[in-house]
Design brief:
With 302 residues, the chain is an alpha/beta fold. It folds into three domains: 82 residues, Winged helix-like DNA-binding domain superfamily/Winged helix DNA-binding domain (Arc Repressor Mutant, subunit A, Orthogonal Bundle), CATH 1.10.10; 104 residues, Periplasmic binding protein-like II (D-Maltodextrin-Binding Protein, domain 2), CATH 3.40.190; 94 residues, D-Maltodextrin-Binding Protein, domain 2 (3-Layer(aba) Sandwich). It is 40% helix and 21% strand. The protein starts with a helix and ends with a helix. 36% of the residues are buried.
Length: 302
Amino acid sequence: MNINQVRYFEAALEEGSFSAAARAQFVTVQAVSKAIADLERELGQPLFIRENRCVRPTEFGLAFHVKALPVLAAFENLETFAETYGEDEDPRPMRMLLCAPPFPNSEVVVPNIAALLGKAVGIEVTMGLSNSQDGVAALLSEQVDAIITIGKCEHRGIECVPVGTMQTGIAVLESHPLTKKAAVSIEDLNPYTVLLASEFDDFAQSIMSIYRECGLESECVKVSTKDTEFELGRFMEEGGYVFCANIPPLFKDMDDLAMVPIDQEHVEPVPICICTLKGKNVPQYKALVRMASSPAVLMSIM
């Protein structure tokens, strides 16, 4: 048994398929499939039930998962120790921004992400919420040490490292016709208007651009998040939708909003990236990237 086998197992359990796990780990599907098959042979029991497009953990697989998470976390801590041993400690907290639109319970979620990442690498992390335009500007002016983007950030002065993927859905009013569906397809979305925020879609690879490449034809309403005259409530009342993260707990206290996931046939994994200035990595940055890539850490955040 080796640590990559355990990593690929956790990724497959989290993502629900070997192909999605391969994308999340930046390896081939064959590498994930072989590693898990070898692990099952060593353990003498199946970890997954293979279906046409997905995998489900067996009872033994779920039990193995419980044991695997602390092992992965301990191994990541060991790698961090080796990587940072002997470095001069920087007493200043690592300053970060999460570049994402305002979302339900963000005042709780954002500090929790900072605390989890900081605990994972043994440094203090401070984090705020920002749009991509302001986040990139803050990074380039060295007001922050790193930013987290949803979608790749392509800028010649910025190093962008994918650390995972995010499953997507749409946010609509509870009264919207699409809430009657368990999941929606691209064809379901095309008759409705989608909101596009210039501070996000012009500064990073956006969810919108990813789905445009997959055939999305919804009419776009492009606005600035700083436009005080735009009425989001009216836009939603007229049947509009907004792309969002497929994280149902974020919407549990929202009486008027609902999240509907994109169906498995059409859903596209959106990369989550940590970005820093090229050549300006603060101490323990590489360790932070490695820890953020850990399924154990990502599952804790989600």
